[in-house]
Amino acid sequence: MNLIQEFEKIVDSYTTKLYARAKYLINNEEDAEDLVQDVFLAAYKQYDTYQQKSTLTTWLMSILNNKVADYYRKKYKQVQEINIEHYFNKDGTWKEKQIVWEEDSEVLLDNKEFKNVFDQCIDKLPSKWNMPFKMYYLENKKTELVCQEFQISTTNLWKILQRGRLQLKECLEKNWFRL
Amino acid sequence: MYSTIIHKLFLTCQETTLLLEVKNNLPLSFIQNIRLQIHLYICKNCQSYHQNLKTIDKILEGNIMNPSAEGNNDLKCQQLKTRIMKNITNEKK
User: Helices A127-138 and A154-172 sit at what angle, rounded to 10 degrees?
Assistant: First the structure.
């Protein structure tokens, strides 16, 4: 079997999975399609460097993660992570009064306009937080998997979740709840 | 005054937001849990934050349960596969 034939099989088996993940990670169908094409092309070019130490899924997913990270870096060059001091005083108390949102998650999930705002807010997270944040939910909060994938410690993941959530909360309050 | 002492003695709000992420994933140790519960009991801001955290959590979980536009996914994937193979074959030339 030559390389092209081999890739025909690989493409057939993995496209659906990679596309689903890309769509979830970048929230844009067209860009996700382009990205998956890039992943397979890169995999094809680097196939001789693929050592069967990891499964093909892991290898393809790691190429995908790199491409997604590049995508976010290009798209949101100016995105800065917000410092934790932005939310807390020196003594660790909140700078702003916290207010419980009135709308319930179930009502919000059914609201298309809210979903748009929510997706935009997630996309505005710095890429180094955005992906672990999304993967944490995609992998059903299996922390070991996420930590392994991004080579970070569990403590680091908690901090990413904490900061990502603070920033997400602020973005939602500004653009949806109007607090 | 009472509240200030509690904030100093137990957890700060900043530490609480971190501990809430841990608690969202795994059971806390007995001591950690007590400290967190006392802080939450006393601190209105963190109570509110905790509520909103749960809302964000449910939205993110719900987002995965109902991925949007799954309808014509099969067709899309077929077309995508064809395009990918075309790219790969062209690459060889």
Answer: 100
Which ipTM did the prediction report? Answer: 0.78
- What's the predicted TM-score (pTM) here? 0.78
Which one of A7, A12, A118 has the shortest CB-CB distance to B59?
A: A118
CA–CA dist A147, A154 (Å, integer): 6
B93 touches chain A (CB under 8 A): no
Residue with more model confidence, B51 or B71 = B51
Considering the four listed CATH numbers 3.20.20, 3.40.190, 2.40.230, 1.10.10, the one that applies to the domain covering A84-177 is 1.10.10
Contact B76 A45 (CB under 8 A): no
Taking alpha carbons only, the member of A91, A33, A90, A94 closest to residue A67 is: A33
For residues A138 and A20, give the distance between their C-alpha atoms in angstroms, rounded to a whole number: 11
CATH T-level fold of A3-75? Rna Polymerase Sigma Factor; Chain: A (1.10.1740)
Torsions phi, psi of A37, nearest 5? -60, -45
3-class SS of residue A110: coil
Cβ proximity of A92 and B7 under 8 Å: yes
Chain B residue closest in CA terms to A134: B60
Alpha carbon distances (Å) from A11 to A78, A169, B10: 35, 39, 55
In A, which residues are within 8 Å of B49 by CB distance? Answer: 94, 98, 169
